[in-house]
Every structure is written in C-alpha cells, then in structure tokens.
Design a protein that fits this description.
By secondary structure, this protein is an alpha/beta fold. The protein has 15 helices and 19 strands. The chain is 38% helix and 22% strand. Strands 11-12-17-16-15-18 form a six-stranded antiparallel beta barrel. The chain has a five-stranded parallel sheet with strand order 2-1-3-4-5, with helices on both faces. The structure holds manganese (II) ion (MN). Manganese (II) ion binds at residues 304-305, 332, 349, 448.
C-alpha cells in the first residue's frame, strides 16, 4: 500500500473580469494555500496546485485530464473570486473523479482599516462559492463541502478525512477480488450481483478453483517455509505442541506453506482482496487461518464463505485507514452476553480476524475445527483493545447496494475466556444492543462486517456518497422507529426508478 503516488488536484476558479494583476494574485494565493495545507502535515495524500481556470474550455480540459490521470484520486475546487458557474457545466458533466468544494478564503480576518473595493473583488469566495454550489446542486453532483479558513486545523482534518474516502474510492475502481471456491452453500447474504458491483463500485470479482491455490501451496520451497516459521516464532507465542519437536510441528509448517502459496496466488493475479470457503478446500489440509490473518494485517481484503462484498469493503477500508492507529478487520457478530446491566457482543470468526486488532503479542495456537472436515487449523488468538469503532457492511438489496454501519465501543472482556480458541473483540453497540441489533436486522444487515478502530462514520458516508450508494448509520442517536422510517425513505430515493 503506497499513497505516495497519489495526488489530489487543487483547482481554483475565477474569471477575466478583474484584470491580469488580480488573476496573478489569485494564483499566488492559491499556491500559498496548497503550500500551507501541505506544510500542516495533516493530509495523507499529497495535494498539488493544478490550475487556475477562467474559461469553460480550461475547466473542461482540467476535468478531462483528471479523469485520465491514474494518480489523481480527486480534486479540491475553490472559487477565490467569482467564477460564473455556467462555465463549469461541461467540466462537471465530464468529471468522473470525486471532488471537495473547499469554501475558504485567503485571509482569515477582515482587514478592517484597509479594506476597499479592490480587496472585496479579490476575496469574494463567500458568494463566488455559492454560485458554484448552485450549479453543483442543480446538476446533482455528489461532493463534500468543507467550510472554514484553510489554516484552521479542523478544516485541514476534514479535508484529510475526505482524502481518505477519495482513496477508498480510487482503490475500489479496478480492485480485483479473487473468489477462491464459491459461496457457502445456501447462504443468501454473501451472494450478490457481481456485474452490478463492477458497474457501480468498480470492483472485478472472479472465481478461481481452489486446486490452483493447492498447487501453489505445494510448490512453496522448504527453505521459504522454514524462514517463515522462524518469523512466526519470533513475533508470536507459539503453542508448545507446534514448537520444534512438538507433535503438531508439521501443522505449523503447513500453515506457513499455505501463507506462501496464498500470497503467491494473490500477487500473481494482482488481487488485493479474496475469499475462500470451508466447503471447498479440495487439496488443502487445513482451512487457512493464520495465513488469512496475516495477509489481512498487510492490507489485503478478505471475506469468509465466499463473501466478496465484505472482502472488497475491507480492502477499501484498509487503504482508507493507512497510517492511522487502530486495526481494521473482517468480523462477525458471533454471540451475545445479554446481561441487562451490561450487554455486549462477542465478535469473532472461525479463525480469520486480522492481527491489526491485536493489542498484545498474539498467541499462535492449534485447535480442532468442527466443520470443513479438514485437519486442525493454526490460528492467532488475541483480544481487540478497547476504544471507539465502527462496524460496516455492504449489502446487495437486489436493485441496489446499501452500506450499513453501526458505531460501537470496543470494551475489555468482563471475564477471562481461557477456552475460547479464536481472536475476538467485545463491543457495546450504539445506542444500545437492542436498538442496534433490531435496526441492523430491519436494514437487512449481514452477519459479516468490517470492524475498524481507524476509519470513521463520516469517511464511510463520504465514500458512499462518491459511489452513489445508500448509506444508513446506526449511532448513539438512533431509534428503531427512526431507522425504519429512514429505510422507507431510502427505498423511495434509491430504489430503481
Ligand atoms: Mn462467517
């Protein structure tokens, strides 16, 4: 994952009414704004001053150039002066990249003692940006409006947050998802329309036989396997039975071999997200656990049981979270603690929880797995640290996609769990478990989610807006009746017309 190649283009709108000297000043000020935003060190993606545009042709040209640039993840648009907005119609019609409308001005304060009409003409974003806002709304353009002085840390952070949504979108467009094996038989929510997903989200989802993976696993060299096992021993607490001379040592070697084969498979095909299913493991000795946990920690998206939607969402959120503290993982609402005094959800999966959520040194263990009919799988066991998080999901409603999210508070487990053989997270759902779970179920939310302690609600909402996908949140202010009404309204707004 490398954000260094990506750029956000800063484009300033103006016109020729004020003379060349004013335009020179507009460009000079725009460059200073970009320099200031860069110097703040708050933006995850480099922002570059791209153009001062004053004619419809210049606007169209820069929008077309943005469309064609593989490194441009989005634009920041600002009307330093007045930029009559009919000039923007052709450009905005052509533009296929997301944009933020930064409603700022060069000066923070009014120069009370010196302000004159020249100053007024030069610094009129207060109404120039309204003219621009009108045409965006008139055209139904999705965008983020960020208001405030460009040196204000809060404004810079909001721009930084929007940049993260923009790179999530950038990642989805062209993301290749490998579906190794098909769906868990008879499961509904992990199915979906892969053609619509490519049209709407930009992701390519294709199926591959598990035998291809089995072949690459078998091909991994013993030397590579030994090296990887040594790495496991260095960074994890390996169970005695898998240590040198232990009776399960061969299983650890096979887990390392699986990681090497899976990594080879993904890299060879250019896949940044993948799925598998315990119902199709022909040629494999164990359900991949450790390997999947480690690949997720490196940034690969994953969904179990053929769940390509969660795999793709996880990959996008991994990119959005890049460089931030806090983990992001495939997750499943597994079982509840219904104590009325303090109800919590125990989130886990059979094996595949990302080690980015591990606060302590993970314990590398081996235990039987009752389903799948394969050998005991190796896995990493740990508990996610406390703190705010979101659970996000992507649902195929048949006629459209819906993104659903729930704000949660990850908490320490109230008691030790000496016999639980999987990685886990405990959380209190907002506003409370009963409301959150009822709302989630009314919304058709899946059991698989992406749990993130790094990505925010606003970033997911912005990503959904960029995608033109419905987004429904369940947060501290939600009530079940309100969520039910939102579902009805969204049906009218987003339903196929
Ligand atoms: Mn599952």
């Amino acid at each position: 994952m490398d954000l260094k190649t990506l750029e956000i283009w800063f484009v300033t709108g103006s016109q020729h009414l004020y003379g060349e000297a004013a335009l020179r000043k507009v460009e000079e000020n725009s460059r200073k704004v970009v320099e200031g935003l860069t110097a703040s060190g708050r933006l995850p993606v480099r922002i570059v001053f791209k153009a001062l545009v004053t004619t419809p042709q210049q606007i169209l040209d820069v929008c077309r150039e943005a469309n064609g640039s593989p490194n441009c993840a989005g634009l920041v648009l600002w009307m330093h002066t007045f930029s009559p907005a009919k000039m923007w119609i052709a450009g905005l019609t052509a533009l296929q990249k997301p944009f933020a409308h930064l409603h700022t001005q060069f000066n923070r304060d009014l120069p009370w003692s010196s302000i004159d009409m020249d100053f007024m003409n030069l610094n009129q974003a207060a109404h120039g940006d309204r003219e621009f806002g009108f045409i965006c709304t008139r055209m139904g353009k999705a965008r983020k409006v960020i208001v405030g002085h460009w040196q204000d840390a809060e404004v810079q952070d909001r721009l930084a947050s929007w940049e993260r949504s923009a790179i999530g979108l950038h990642e989805l467009r062209g993301l290749k998802v490998a579906r190794i094996g098909d769906n868990m038989r008879q499961v509904a929510v992990t199915e979906g329309d892969k053609v619509e997903a490519q049209l709407r989200l930009g992701i390519e989802v294709n199926g591959y036989g598990v035998s291809e993976l089995a072949h690459l696993i078998a091909e991994a060299s013993d030397g590579e396997v030994d090296k990887l096992v040594a790495e496991y021993e260095r960074i994890y607490t390996v169970a005695p039975s898998m240590q040198h001379g232990g009776e399960k040592r061969a299983s650890l070697h096979y887990a390392a071999r699986t990681e090497l084969g899976l990594r080879h498979f993904l890299d060879r095909g250019g896949f940044k997200a993948f799925t598998d299913t315990f119902e199709d493991l022909h040629g494999l000795k164990q359900l991949p656990g450790l390997a999947v946990q480690r690949l997720m920690a490196e940034g690969y998206g994953f969904g179990a049981e053929g769940d390509w939607k969660t795999a793709a969402l996880l990959r996008a959120m991994k990119v959005m979270a890049h460089g931030l503290p806090g983990g992001t993982s495939f997750m499943e609402d597994y079982t509840y603690h219904f104590d009325p005094a303090s109800p919590v959800v125990l989130g886990a999966h059979m094996l595949e929880i990302c080690t980015s959520l591990a606060a302590e040194k993970p314990s590398c263990e081996i235990h039987p797995l009752g389903i799948g009919g394969k050998g005991d799988p190796v896995r990493l066991v740990f508990t996610a640290p406390p703190g705010p998080a979101i659970n996000a999901a992507l649902i195929d409603m048949g006629d459209r996609f819906r993104i659903l999210l729930n704000e949660v508070e990850v908490v320490a487990p109230p008691q030790p769990l000496p016999k639980l053989p999987v990685a886990r997270a405990f959380w209190k759902a907002q506003p409370d478990l009963k409301t959150a779970a009822a709302s989630w179920i009314y919304a058709g939310g899946p059991h698989h989610t992406v749990l993130s302690q790094a990505v925010t609600t606003e970033q997911i909402e912005d990503l959904a807006e960029m995608l033109g996908v419905e987004c429904l949140k369940i947060d501290g202010k939600s009530s079940t009746s309100c969520v039910k009404n939102q579902l009805r309204w969204n049906e009218a707004y987003y339903g196929r017309k």
